[in-house]
Specification:
This is SURF1-like protein. The protein has four helices and eight strands; from the N terminus they run H-E-E-E-E-E-E-H-E-H-E-H. It is an alpha/beta fold and 263 residues long. It has a five-stranded mixed barrel. It is elongated.
Length: 263
């Protein structure tokens, strides 16, 4: 009854089913790892954002590489903005996906060390090669607050660190590169300023990182495993249908033809 399973068509179909099952199980495991990773990331970000602000020099020092647990931590700093050495970061978008610049201003602390401050986004308002009009930061001695961020690299961001850019324009925010440019002691990483808010809403402050959609990965994980479970069920359904169709065909062939009636 089941000899048809040894035909070329059914051998190929069975092999495909046997390959699909472990493949779908692995895809489900991959989505499970993605879910765990995103959940852990969301927990770290939430914990950092809701932690009490601390002085920046308690978290980072010159040459320090900001860690995953330190990233997004709210820090405070007191000093003065150095607009003479201010630069803009090219090809950055705002919440509406408009392309412009991030404004990176050195912030000189009371002890003379420098903290890099991303003051927010401004529109290009013309060709990208021209230095844009940048709103001025608060003057004099001020206290600022912001989220601590790790140095940007091409490997982490996917942004190429292009050379030969127009004057006072950069591609990546990197404290080591800025320390060489400024010739000063620069704290590792940088901050995204959150307070005080800029006058007139410009530069446009960078929004909170938000949370990644971890439940979506959980749903994909369940989906792949349900698909894996459905493959053998579907294969057995096709086998039973083939057996039934062959049995019906055999029954029709075994019925004798009626003899013609005598005249």
């Amino acid at each position: 009854m089941y000899r048809f399973l040894m035909t070329r068509q059914w051998v190929i179909l069975t092999l495909i089913a046997l390959l699909l099952i472990p493949t779908m199980i692995r895809l489900g495991i991959w989505q499970m790892h993605r879910y765990e990773m995103r959940t852990a990331r969301n927990d770290l970000v939430s914990e950092a954002l809701h932690a009490e602000p601390v002085p920046v020099e308690r978290v980072t020092t010159a040459g320090h590489a900001v860690t995953r647990t330190e990233k997004y931590r709210t820090v405070t700093a007191t000093g003065t903005f150095d607009t003479a050495d201010e630069v803009v970061v090219r090809r950055r978008t705002n919440s509406d996906d408009e392309v412009g610049f991030h404004v990176l201003t050195p912030f000189v602390l009371t002890d003379g060390k420098v903290l890099l401050v991303n003051r927010g986004w401004i529109p290009a308002n013309g060709i990208q090669t021209a230095y844009p009009k940048v709103p001025a930061p608060p003057k004099g001695h001020v206290t600022i607050k912001g989220r601590l961020m790790a140095d940007e690299t091409t490997a982490a961001s996917g942004i190429k660190d292009l050379k030969g850019l127009p004057d006072r324009q950069i591609m990546l925010i990197n404290s080591e590169e800025q320390a060489r440019r400024l010739g000063k002691e620069v704290l590792g990483g940088y901050i995204q300023q959150t307070a005080p808010e800029p006058k007139g809403g410009s530069p446009e402050q960078i929004s909170d990182p938000g949370s990644e959609d971890a439940p979506l990965n959980y749903a994909y994980m369940i989906q792949w495993w349900l698909f894996a479970a459905a493959v053998p069920v579907g294969w057995w359904f096709l086998v039973r249908r083939e057996v039934r169709d062959r049995a019906e065909a055999a029954a029709k062939e075994s019925v004798p033809e009626a003899e013609p009636a005598a005249v």
